[in-house]
Design brief:
Blueprint lengths: L1 E4 L3 H5 L2 H13 L3 E3 L9 H5 L3 H14 L5 E4 L2 H13 L4 H12 L1 E3 H8 L8 E8 L3 H6 L4 H8 L2 E6 L14 H4 L1 H18 L3 E4 L2 H13 L5 E4 H5 L3
Parallel strand pairs: 1-2, 1-3, 3-4, 5-6, 5-7, 7-8
Amino acid sequence: MKVSLFVTCLVDLFSSDVGEDTVELLEKLGCEIEFPEAQTCCGQPAYNSGFLKESVETMKHMIQTFEHSEYVVSPSGSCITMFKEYPKIFKDDHVWSIKAEKLASKSYELTQFIVDVLGMKDVGAKVNAKATYHTSCHMTRLLGVKDAPLELLKNVKGLEVLPLPHSQDCCGFGGTFSVKMADISEQMVDEKVKHVEDTGAELLIGSDCGCLMNIGGRINRQGKQVQVKHIANILNQS
């Protein structure tokens, strides 16, 4: 099975270890990985800020970049959600709507791909820790991926996953929201950090680097001792 890695901007610029663990994990599960070097941003920051016209060319570029891929997999539910939005954006353009639908239909978030396509719930990971899991908004509410990451974490040997109070609450990142509404964003992430601390977990796990960067940054500034890890980092440990 050949998989094209959609690495995302945040992984590329800030969390290269997540990209490495994603590749190693999928290879261990029998996938052949390719990395289309022409890939760029998916256009989400501009699109979510209302700059549709300016983001369309970026979207077309990404459609062309992954046009011949068998599967497209990314360690980000948020960015895969953007790919799923492409058919709606190009619905009035016959040629590009077909291309966009083709890309959307073969694009998967990492845990979604492992559980729903590869049919695996135990990847042989082992981590001795007490952890809690943050559910990102785009991944759960828009992409609809809720159970896959928890199913995989449940089968990590030595890992105790503690329920996170108010887990459905946003962490305050929201892409450009955290820049435009910094004061509100700060209060939201402070609440999230408090809830994480209340669990007694030593490890916070998530599936979107934007959320983890936001929460992890606040944890660091407050001098908390909770480690923050992407789920790919956890699933690739054995």
